Amino acid sequence: MADQIGLQCTECKRRNYVTTVNKKKQQKKLEKKKYCKWCKAHTLHKETK
Ligand SMILES: [Zn+2]
Prior knowledge:
Helices cover 0% and strands 61% of the residues. The protein has a four-stranded antiparallel sheet with strand order 2-1-4-3, with no helix packed on it. It has strands at 2-9, 15-22, 31-36, 41-48. The chain has a single domain, classed as Rubrerythrin, domain 2 (Single Sheet), CATH 2.20.28. By secondary structure, it is an all-beta fold. The protein has no helices and four strands. It is elongated. The mean pLDDT is 92. Bound molecules: zinc ion (ZN). Zinc ion binds next to loops.
């Protein structure tokens, strides 16, 4: 049931995290504030394939 998605930094466009979401429950695009080791800061990460 769970789909694997990547979380991409909106600053440097690098894919830093992989997580799983339930697409039935998670309708809209995932956005999370996470630490980016490339930016060396907490940035907004968005769902990517
Ligand atoms: Zn970054």
